[in-house]
C-alpha cells in the first residue's frame, strides 16, 4: 500500500529590490536585492491524499506575504528578515509545523567617483550572493545557516598538487605550480544553543553579529586562497573552515563545496615551443567537486 511519506511546499524565487534611505540624509541609500524561498510543512497531508485544498495557504499568498512583509519591515540583515517571516507564518496559520526560509542577497556595492563614495550608485561584480537559511519548527527548534555562494576566484600561482595515489588508471602529472580556480560555496551553521531562540536573532542582528560573521568568512576565504601555497583544494578548504570556526564563537560548523575548475596547459611541443605555465585551456568539464565540513571540537568535560 502506498502512503504519503513526506511533503512540503512553498514559493521559490520571490524576488524584490528594496531601497533603504538613511533617516538623516535620505539621499544616502542601501539596496537589498533578494530572492526568497519559503517552504512549509505541517498538516497539509489531506491536500495531497484527499484533494482537500482547505488547508492550503496558496503559494501566491506566500509570495504576497514575502513582498508585503519586506515592504513593512527591515530586511537588513537577511537573517533578521528570515526570522521575521518565520514568526509571521507561525503566528498566522496554526497548522504550520515547520518553515524553511532561504534568502539570497545580490552583492550591490557602492563605488567612488573622483575619490568620493557615491550615495546611491552601485556596482555588481559577478554572481556572488550572500545566503541564509532558517529552518524552524513550531516547538522552537531552529537551525540558522549563513554563507556566500557564486564567488569565483582564480590564482595563477601558489597552488601545487603532487603526492597523490598513483595507479594504472593515473595519467595526471604532479605539479608544483598550476592554476587554481573555484566558485566558492561556503556555508556556516550557527550554534543554536548559543543563539537561544528565533526571537534572539533580532537582538543579535541589531548587534551586527550576522554581518560580522559574513565579513569574517568572506575575508578568511579570500585571504587563505591568496596567501596559502595550496597543497590541494582539500587542504586549503579545511584551513579556511578552521580559521572561520576559530574566529567566530557563534559558528558551530563550516561547510565548503568547491568545484575544481581545471585550466589545462596547451601542448605547443608540436611547434617546438615551451609552455611555462602561460597558456591554459579553460576546461568546461569535467570538474572536480570537493566538499568538507569543519566543526568545533566539543570542549572536554573534566
Ligand atoms: O586539489 C586537488 N584535489 C584533488 O582531489 C584533485 N584531483 C585532481 O585530479 N586534481 C586535484 N586537485
Automatic annotation (TrEMBL):
Write down the Pfam families for this protein, in alphabetical order.
Uricase (PF01014)
Q: Chief location of this protein?
A: other
- Which pathway? Purine metabolism; urate degradation; (S)-allantoin from urate: step 1/3
GO CC annotations on file? peroxisome
Q: Which GO terms describe its biological process?
A: purine nucleobase catabolic process; urate catabolic process
Top EC class, one word: oxidoreductase
Q: InterPro entries in the record, alphabetically?
A: Uricase (IPR002042), Uricase_CS (IPR019842)
Q: List the catalysed reactions.
A: urate + O2 + H2O = 5-hydroxyisourate + H2O2
- EC code: 1.7.3.3
Annotated residues that bind O2 are located at 260
- Annotated urate binding lies at 59-60, 161, 178, 233-234, 260
Q: Which GO terms describe its molecular function?
A: urate oxidase activity
Q: Where is the active site?
A: 11 (charge relay system), 59 (charge relay system), 262 (charge relay system)
Cell compartment(s), UniProt: Peroxisome
The question of whether Oxidoreductase is a record keyword is answered with yes
Q: Please provide the record's keywords in A-Z order.
A: Oxidoreductase, Peroxisome, Purine metabolism
Which of this chain's residues are annotated to bind 5-hydroxyisourate?
Answer: 60, 161, 178, 233-234, 260
- Function, as annotated: Catalyzes the oxidation of uric acid to 5-hydroxyisourate, which is further processed to form (S)-allantoin.
Give the UniProt family note. Belongs to the uricase family.
Q: What is this protein called?
A: Uricase
| Organism per entry | Dekkera bruxellensis
Q: Which gene encodes it?
A: uaZ
Amino acid at each position: 500500500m502506498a502512503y504519503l511519506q513526506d511533503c512540503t511546499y512553498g514559493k521559490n524565487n520571490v524576488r524584490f529590490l528594496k531601497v533603504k534611505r538613511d533617516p538623516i540624509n535620505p539621499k544616502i541609500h542601501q539596496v537589498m536585492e533578494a530572492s526568497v524561498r519559503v517552504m512549509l510543512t505541517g498538516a497539509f497531508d489531506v491536500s495531497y491524499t484527499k484533494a482537500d485544498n482547505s488547508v492550503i495557504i496558496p503559494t501566491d499568498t506566500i509570495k504576497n506575504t514575502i513582498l508585503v512583509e519586506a515592504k513593512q519591515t527591515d530586511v537588513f540583515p537577511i537573517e533578521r528578515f528570515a526570522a521575521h517571516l518565520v514568526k509571521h507564518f507561525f503566528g498566522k496559520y496554526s497548522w504550520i509545523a515547520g518553515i524553511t526560509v532561504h534568502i539570497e542577497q545580490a552583492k550591490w556595492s557602492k563605488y567612488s567617483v573622483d575619490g568620493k563614495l557615491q550615495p546611491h550608485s552601485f556596482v555588481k561584480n559577478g554572481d556572488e550572493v550572500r545566503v541564509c537559511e532558517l529552518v524552524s519548527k513550531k516547538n522552537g527548534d531552529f537551525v540558522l545557516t549563513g554563507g556566500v555562494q557564486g564567488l569565483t576566484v582564480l590564482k595563477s600561482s601558489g597552488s601545487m598538487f603532487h603526492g597523490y595515489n598513483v595507479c594504472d588508471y593515473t595519467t595526471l602529472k604532479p605539479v608544483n605550480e598550476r592554476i587554481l580556480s573555484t566558485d566558492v560555496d561556503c556555508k556556516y551553521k550557527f550554534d543554536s544553543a548559543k543563539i537561544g531562540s528565533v526571537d534572539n536573532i533580532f537582538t543579535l542582528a541589531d548587534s551586527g553579529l550576522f554581518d560580522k560573521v559574513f565579513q569574517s568568512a568572506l575575508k578568511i576565504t579570500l585571504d587563505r586562497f591568496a596567501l596559502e601555497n595550496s597543497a590541494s583544494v582539500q587542504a586549503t578548504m579545511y584551513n579556511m573552515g578552521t580559521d572561520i570556526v576559530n574566529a567566530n564563537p557563534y559558528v558551530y560548523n563550516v561547510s565548503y563545496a568547491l568545484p575544481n575548475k581545471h585550466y589545462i596547459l596547451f601542448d605547443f611541443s608540436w611547434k617546438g615551443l615551451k609552455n611555462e605555465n602561460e597558456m591554459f585551456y579553460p576546461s568546461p568539464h569535467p570538474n572536480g567537486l570537493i566538499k568538507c565540513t569543519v566543526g568545533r571540537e566539543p570542549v572536554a568535560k573534566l
